[in-house]
Amino acid sequence: MKEIAQIRSLSLWIFLIPFLTVNTCLLISVNYHIFDSTFLSVDQIGRSDFTIPYLDGSLSISRASRTFPQFLVFKPGMVITAILLCVYWFKNNTLINNFKNTSSKKNTFMIFGVMSAIFLIIHSLLLGIETDIKIFKFLRRVVLLSFIIFEIIAQSLLVINFYKLKNQLKDFFHQNILKLKILLVSILIFVAIINIPLLIVSGNIHFKHGLEWNYFIGVILFYFLTSLLWKK
Questions:
Q1: At 59, is the secondary structure helix, strand, or coil?
Q2: Is the pLDDT confidence value at 2 over 90?
Q3: Is the distance from CB of 64 to CB of 48 less than 8 angstroms?
């Protein structure tokens, strides 16, 4: 099926583009001195001493990406990722309908997936706009949280659909990879639930930043596993 080949390719790009994007922003933040005395001089807010935020949480993704010149990398990278996500969810919707022998049905996972991509675009556009208006800052957090929630719901519903169709799909994908995807989604849900009390209170900044970087990797790892799921 052509959808399978397209989904495999899309998944790899959806993993690679955001991974390279945020880590490029991190490298710019840590190596800001390279850009001194150039037109790409890094904004003071976006500068950082050497850090591995996945381990020490010394830097947030927002701080590493919202100022000049990092946003020149981050915003296009996230918008491109969001567009690819929309295509990804549409292709999976078509694939599932083919195996269910239905047509023109909008599966719930597709709706949540496309909405998550829309929230990602909105978040990317809002990031870096500095304002003292509290409602705007609150809205920005709501948009980011909505992206994460809708994305995890979409991923969960998709693996549930695959699991239900596993007998029909057994000749098309590696069942062990599907089990890994189910495990990954379960971990993401579990981590989100147990950390809600810590996230809604002040403090624990380094822990929150470290969680942010690692959770981001977990979310996009879903797509890397998808690229391995389907047999060629």
A1: coil
A2: no
A3: yes
Cα–Cα distance between 65 and 29 in angstroms, integer?
8
Q: pLDDT digits over 133-150, tens only?
A: 677 777 888 898 999 999
The answer to whether 203 and 48 have CB atoms below 8 angstroms apart is: no
Which runs of E-coded beta strand occur in the chain?
none
- Residue ranges of alpha helices (H) inside the chain are 2-30, 53-56, 61-65, 70-100, 108-126, 134-164, 166-169, 175-199, 205-229
Tokens at 196, concatenated? 């809600």
Cα-based angle 82, 88, 89 (whole degrees, multiple of 5): 95
> What is the pTM for the complete model shown?
0.93
140: enclosing H helix or E strand:
helix 134-164
Angstrom CA distances, 137 to 62, 142, 143, stand at 13, 9, 10
pLDDT in tens, 5-22: 999 999 999 999 999 999
Question: 213 exposed, middle or buried (CB, 10 Å; 0-12, 13-18, 19+)?
Answer: buried
Cα separations (Å) of 156 from 27, 61, 71, 112, 181? 32, 25, 31, 10, 9
CA distances from 36 to 26, 49, 51 (A): 16, 15, 19
Residue 11 one-letter amino acid: S
Q: What pLDDT shows up at residue 132? A: 65
- Which residue's structure tokens are 């150039």? 38
Mean pLDDT computed over every residue of the chain:
92
